[in-house]
Design goal:
By secondary structure, the chain is an all-alpha fold. It has nine helices and two strands; from the N terminus they run ααααααααββα. The two termini are about 30 Å apart.
Length: about 190
């Protein structure tokens, strides 16, 4: 979410940030002193008061990629604040999805496209993807359960919260950038 927050700041580039109500009218927050509801800061700080994603969001496994706005409209009541935003912290995977949606709204392009253009290409992460696409089908590893049976690919509803498919070498480029305070010092990726 921190990275998505930084992306949102970069994508913002001097434009007014849409209000929370404009971005996600189906999310509800109780008022807190100094805040009229949740905002991008509460999302990045994990202080929205939202639940962790609910079972229908976890169980959603449609192989046809769903747009992020539609994904966030799918099961909205996991994003009802349990306390006034900004007063307590609790992690939720939907926070990363909302931060990604802010990136989409501000930049005007899908989150995956924005990340590809601004991070994956400069980081030489040529085979990294958010989907079960041709690159993943060609290069992705087969995963197994505890009984050594192959596990089918999980099509995450909120891809920004953990749906990235990558190799250890390409992920090393991302981790190196994060450890070096966003300076590029890349490993060669010729796989």
């Amino acid at each position: 979410v921190r990275t998505a927050g930084l992306i949102a700041t970069e994508a913002h580039a001097g434009r007014a940030t849409p209000s929370a109500e404009t971005l996600l009218p189906n999310s509800r927050a109780s008022a807190s002193p100094g805040r009229s509801g949740w905002d991008a800061g509460a999302v990045v700080e994990h202080t929205t008061g939202w639940d962790e994603i609910h079972l229908p969001e976890i169980a959603h496994n449609d192989p046809v990629p769903i747009a992020l706005g539609d994904a966030l409209d799918f099961h909205t009541h996991s994003r009802t604040s349990r306390w006034p935003p900004g007063t307590r912290s609790a992690y939720t995977n939907s926070g990363a999805a909302v931060a990604a949606y802010i990136v989409e709204k501000i930049s005007g392009v899908p989150y995956e496209t924005y990340v590809g253009q601004h991070f994956l290409v400069p980081l030489k992460m040529r085979h990294t993807t958010f989907l079960n696409d041709a690159a993943y089908q060609k290069l992705g590893a087969i995963t197994y359960d505890k009984n050594h049976h192959p596990v089918l690919y999980r099509h995450l509803l909120y891809r920004a919260a953990g749906g990235i498919n990558s190799s250890p070498r390409e992920m090393a480029n991302l981790l190196t950038m994060l450890l070096n305070e966003y300076r590029l010092n890349l490993m060669d990726s010729r796989t």
